[in-house]
Amino acid sequence: MASLLSDLLSESPRAAIGSSVQPSCVPNRRDFLIRASRLGIMLPAVGAALDACSKESSPPASKVATAGESTGTPLVSHQNPDSRADSILHTPHIASSATASATAGAATVAFHRYDPILPPASVSRVLTLNWTAKEAPIRISTSTVVAGWTFEGDIPGPIVHCRVGDTVNFTLGVDGQMPHSMDFHAAQIDPKTAFRSVAAGQTQSFTFKPKYAGAFLYHCGTAPVLMHIGSGMFGAIIVDPPTPLAPAKEFVLIQNEFYLAPVANGVQASDYTKMLAMTPDLVCFNGRPNQYQEAPLRVKRGDRVRFYVVSAGPSHPCNFHVVGEQFDTVYLGAPPGSAIHGVQTFSISPGGGMIFELIADVAGEFPFVNHGFGHGQKGAIGMLVVE
Ligand SMILES: [Cu+2]
Question: Which pLDDT score is estimated for 87?
Answer without folding.
Answer: 46
